[in-house]
């Protein structure tokens, strides 16, 4: 209903500004997600693998990781387009598998829960 309202009742200039704002917001979110992920990968994994690395080397590694993770996101999106189901149902299936494993890991390592065999 919302896309129909936008295309039918908004003048072209306002519609263009609204679409530009939505695109900018999406790009900002994607950039912050990629930046955060590369920072976590560099600080947690790259720095422990190469503790004597310089700031310049870590910055280069972060840039490479942003490109790699971005390409993986594009490949994942293309694979998602080819599937017959919805993205939400696939997310529920993946999160159910991951959360079941995490719950089992928590119960195994938490003797206070009283669930350890």
Stretches where pLDDT falls below 50 for ≥5 residues?
none
The helix/strand class is mainly alpha
What distance lies between the first and last C-alpha atoms, to the nearest angstrom? 53 Å
Query: In the residues, how many domains can be counted?
Result: 2
Query: Treating each run of at least 4 consecutive H or I residues as one helix, how many helices?
Result: 4
Mean pLDDT: 84
Helix content: over 70%
Strand content: under 5%
Count of extended strands = 0
Shape: flat
Q: Strand count, sense and closure of the main sheet? A: none
Element-by-element helix/strand order: HHHH
What's the gyration radius in Å?
21 Å
Task: Set down the secondary structure blueprint.
Layout: H1 2-9, H2 12-49, H3 55-82, H4 87-109
Helix pairs in contact: 2-3
Characteristics of this structure?
117 residues
Q: Could you explain how this protein is built, in words?
A:
- The protein is mostly helical.
- The protein folds into 2 domains: 81 residues, no CATH class; 33 residues.
- Helices cover 83% and strands 0% of the residues.
- Helix 2 crosses helix 3.
- It is flat, with a radius of gyration of 21 Å.
- The model has no long low-confidence stretch (mean pLDDT 84).
Give a short summary of the structure.
With 117 residues, the chain is mostly helical.
């Amino acid at each position: 209903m919302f896309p129909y309202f936008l295309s039918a009742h908004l003048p072209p200039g306002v519609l263009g500004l609204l679409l530009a704002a939505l695109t900018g917001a999406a790009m900002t979110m994607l950039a912050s997600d990629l930046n955060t992920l590369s920072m976590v990968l560099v600080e947690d994994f790259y720095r422990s693998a190469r503790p004597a690395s310089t700031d310049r080397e870590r910055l280069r590694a972060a840039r490479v990781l942003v490109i790699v993770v971005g390409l993986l996101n594009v490949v994942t999106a293309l694979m998602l387009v080819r599937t017959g189901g919805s993205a939400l149902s696939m997310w529920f299936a993946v999160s159910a598998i991951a959360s079941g494993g995490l719950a089992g890991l928590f119960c195994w390592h938490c003797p206070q829960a009283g669930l350890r065999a």
